[in-house]
Every structure is written in structure tokens, then in C-alpha cells.
Amino acid sequence: MALLTFKGGVHPYDGKDLSKDKPILEILPKGNLVFPLSQHIGAPATPIVEKGDRVLVGQKIAEAGGFVSAPVYSSVSGTVVGIEPRLVCTGGTVNSIIVENDGKYEEAPAWDIKPVEELTREEKINLIKEAGIVGMGGAGFPTHVKLSPKEPEKIEYVIVNAAECEPYITADYRRMLECGDKLIAGLKISLSLFPNAKGIIAVEDNKMDCVNHLKDLAKDEPNIEVMALKTKYPQGAERQIIYATTGRAINSTMLPADAGCIVNNVESVISIYRAVAEGKPLINRVVTVTGQAIAEPKNFLAPIGMNFTELVEAAGGFKGEPAKLISGGPMMGFAMYSTDVPVTKTSSALLAFTEDEVAKYETTACINCGRCVSICPEVLIPSRLADYAENDNAQLFEKWNGLECIECGSCSYICPAKRHLAQSIKTMKKNVIASKRK
Amino acid sequence: MSGLINVSSSPHVRDKDTTSKIMQCVFIALLPASLFGIYNFGLNALIIIAVTVAACVATEYVYEKLMKKPVTVKDWSAAVTGLLLALNLPCPYGTENVIRMCLLAILGSVFAIVIVKQLFGGLGQNFMNPALGARCFLLISFTSRMTTFAMADGVSTATPLALLKAGESVNTLDMVIGRIPGTIGETSVIAIIIGAIFLIWKDVITLRIPGSYLISFAIFVLIFGGHGLDLNFLCAHLAGGGLMLGAFFMATDYVTSPITKKGQIVYGVILGCLTGLFRLFGGSAEGVSYAIIFSNLLVPLIERATLPKPFGKGGEK
User: Does A321 sit within 8 Å of B1, measured CB to CB?
Assistant: First the structure.
């Protein structure tokens, strides 16, 4: 049963007007490209090229490092100049393959592919795995793993997560308007893997133009439903979107497949189409470059590995002094101290703000107002969890269900005392999970 | 790009509401009741209100300065405590009595801010509502001065609740409007409701606590009041004494009420039953203050018992 929403949630300023009317612009990199070997959850990829090798566009340069892993492809032609740790958007360094771009964009030989109708289930999943597709909404979970549940016949819903509930980002919005046909084709490919599944495209109702466009495109597809969900953050969180579209609730110990659901992001579904129908690996993605400190906000089709600094230049550079740079959305993205990082498979946006709202407010005492409780989409007591986290009380933290936190950040957003609730809870969660593994 | 860039954990945006804005809302919401009190009891009421608010803010400032803690008077919480305490004091007649009441108000302010609030760790750490703690302290220590109610014309009269207790009849309409003796801010149901509507509109309070409080109190009075289905008696009890002020402004105090939604309803029901018990079977006519500070003590227990089930727990597997 579709409820089209969930309990709790917040309404941050959405800022999408800055970039929503900017068509996707293809952009070619000038400088060196950096391909981190960990752009996904799971084992890092293993390089299969060496320093000095010549690589082509679409050539595999690193092999998946295990089942839960994904290969990496070059997005340009050029020479491998090194394999070394490089700074990535999350603030750490990751072993990366560096390719010097020769500007020729010479393409690697295309894959031999059969028409989609003739492919078997295994062949399709294998193509998706080979293309290096991961959850491109931010989590980076390898898509072929998601599409291989133990009992495929028990999957009843394949959901395209097109909520794009993070403020400012318009990458999925532009994709839906400009490549709606590929999205639907990609969803049909995903649906063909599950005999009993129905397709759902879940869009927030602040994007009714996408809803109507997709409904129009899917009017002859009885097995695909386009749903307009209530606009509310975090509508696009996996557990919340499953609840909103199907009425099923899962917790931290369950996978979407346990509720008969598979959830994929818009960009991932389009990549599935490109891999299975066109035989092309994942080498680019849509990135929104926006924020008050960007001169001309834009949506780019950016090659993976391209330097963020080049994207900022292509968006007219900085307007005024940027106070904060964020990779991803303002609610869950990572603050960066440099734009000298590469676009990865999970980079949906680069935001530059002229003012840092976090630094603007000082933290004051918690007055127990309960706003964090009333908005928590996981029905937790964030203020108490943060207390337990700050006192390093793992026992009470777990008893009060701290491990159920989805780290959406709504509690920190709403807190009138400006406590760093999500930060404390996230840190504690990591510690508790780590101590359990011991 | 030359300047330094801020780096912090997500989320990177914040809602505009702050603690101080919430406290200001509560202060504004108490103004209708305060203005009615001044209209009802004369300018003496204004003097008492001004002295109490100033005393609370000054106490907080001096204490924090002396203890070398950051000064937090800007968060308006001391001002709200002061105003609430003033609205819970009677307004006597005659200059000398007013001066004495002001001295009591200052004593109460120091008690509220230092003993009830700061000694437990300041804002957010007190287990009892500071204004009510101070009121009960004054009520026990200076019973006669705290329970002598005079109108603006100087005639001392019994409050409608005391009349009810004595088995006499009262004019319910007067009680709703507030033309009755009582403490400065508790008499007018209409003025209190106006403030409460403002708070609900501003999302500062919900109806969970006041609603369950008033409903359970009404049921308690119907069952144990000994008047059967006497609506006049019931309305007089609802409109009389500190019930309305307590239900909307003191039981809803964030710090001393449960944070869980279910807990708030349980808390309201306990308040309703205790108030009924104190009023109908207790020694004094009034019972709201004691009911609230007693229930404040139960909050940690209530919270533990009403921990909500997280999203998806026990779901289909």
C-alpha cells in the first residue's frame, strides 16, 4: 500500500531553482584524471595497468577485488602516470590510478553484445557487474550484488529512487527530464531479472514535471507505476522510500530484499541501461555544481576521475569567497577543504556556500524540546542518543536503539540548541559496530 | 580562493529556530495573561511582574559571573522563569504589602534560579520547573501572605476554588473572563488560551500534555467530585485556580516533561489525577503546583517506560 510519505522528516530550504533549468552539459577534462580504486562499498578494485601503460576511453583499468566490489574504467585516453594515494571527497586518501589525458579520446573496442531480449538473467547481471555499476545516489553499494538476492522470485517491487530529497541537487531531475526513456528502459531491464516484480518510479512531488513526463513515457507499461511522494527530507532514504511506496518497514538488521524490494538510484538505472543495452561501462555521471558561491550553477555530464576544480571553472568559478565546499547534498554530503579531488561514481554534486550555517550558530544547552524526537524518521530519541554517545555509554546507546540511526542529519538540522546530534550519534554508531566485530 | 574553508560533519544546514527564539515565544505568549493581571489587580501587579523578571535575570547573571560560567541570560529562559513566577504570586493591596510581596518575589527568584536551576547544572538540567519550585517554596514558608487574595479595590475575598471547596456556588462566566481573585496571571482563562493558541501556532507546544491533563482532570472530577454530572461544577474546576496556566505553560515546560510522545500523554494523565486528588481530597483548595512538581519527579521513569518502537522493529521478516 502506497502511503507516499513517512512519519517525521524536515523541510530544509531546497535551493534547486539555482540549477534546475540548466540542461545537462557534456564536459571534457583537460588535466590529469584520478581514478580512486575504492569508489564503492566493499573490497577495493585491483589495478590491471601499470605506470607507463597507454589506456583508452572505456578501457578497464582495475578489476573488482571480490564479489562485493566493482571494476574501474578509464574515461579518457592517455598514459598511466602513477598509482598512488590521492585525496578524495570524503577527506581521506585512497589508492588511485592517475591517467595523463592525451586529449584524443580514442575509444577502446566496443563490447560484443546481444540484443537485450536474447540475454539470460546471468548475462545481464554479469554485464552490470562488468560495467562497474554501484549505487550512485551516494552509498556506492555494488548494483550487481543488490540485483542478486537469494530468492529472486520473492522480489515484488523494483523501486527507482528518484526522490532526490537532498536540497540543491538537480542531477536526477535533469536526468529524468532529458533521459526519461533510458530510465524506463533501464527499469525494464531490472524488472526482467525478477519474475514477480512490479516497477515503481518514486519522485518527490516538487518535481511534478518529471512525474508527468515519466507517466507519459510509461503509459504503455502496465507493470511500471510512477508515484509522486510528499516532498520531505529524507524521502529518498532507502527505508523511508520503501515505506512510502509499499507500506513495508525494514530495520537495520534487514535488507530491502527481506521486504521484497530492490531500490536503485536514477543514475544507476540509466547506467544499467547503458551497460546492458549499449554495452558501455560506467565512465561518467551527472554532477550538479551549485550553491550561492558558484557564479553559474550547472549540471554537467562529467567523466569519472575529472578534477572538481575544472568543474568549478566550467561553472564560472567562485562568486565571492566560498565559506564551505560540500561533495554531495547539504544534509549528508562531505565538507571538503580542497576542490583538488576527483569526480567519483557517487559524486552527485559539488556545493559551494558563501556562509557556513554550522559555524554561524553556537551550541547551547539541550532544553529537551523534543523536536529531534518528532522529526526522527527512524522514531528514535536523538537527544538522548547523543548524550549517551558523548558519555561513551555503549550499553544505553544500544538499548535506546542507536544502531537504527540512518545518519540522515534531520536531528542536527532541527535542533534549536544547535547541538551536533547526528555527528555524535554517527561516531558512536561506528564505535559500537566496530567493537562488535572484534 | 584564498580564505580558509570550514569543514564539519554533515548536515551542513540548520533550521533558523533557536532556543532563545522559543523562549521569546513563551514570553510573548504569557503577555495576554500578564496584561489581564495588571488590568485586574492594578499597577501593583505590574510592579511585582517587573521586579520578579528583573530579579531572575539579575540572579542568573550574577551567579554565572561569580561561578565564571558563560552568561546565558540572552537565552530568555531566566526572563520566562521570572514572568511565570510573578504570574503565580498574589497581588496584595497597599504599598507596604506590595513591597513585602516584592521581597518575597526576589527571594523566590533567587531560589528558582540558584537552587532549582543552576545548582543542578543550569538550563536543561533542572528536574523541577524553577518557577513552580519557587512558588511552592514560598507557599510553604509564607502561607498566609501567599494565600491572601485581594482585588484591586483592596477587598480580600476567597477564591472561587475555596468557595467551591466550602460547598458554595460560583459564577463560572466571571471565572472564564478572569474577574476573580487569584494569583496575578491565573485568573483569565481567555487570556491564557490566547497565549496557548499562539504557542501551538508557533509549534512551541502541542496539545498532548495540556489535552490529556485537562481531559483526565475533568474525568476525575466527574467521578470523584460528588456532584455527578454537574457541568457548572466541572467548568468551575476547569476554569478555577492555576489549572489553565499550569496545563498550558508549566506542565509543558520542555525540560521537566517527558520527551517521548506517549510519555507526554501518560504525564498529562498523571497530572490530571494528582490535581484532582489534591483539589478534592487535599487540605487546600488548590493542587496544580504540587501536582506538576510531583509529576516532574516521575519524568525519567515515564520516559523509560514509553521508549518508542523504532521504525521497522518487529516488522515482517
Answer: yes
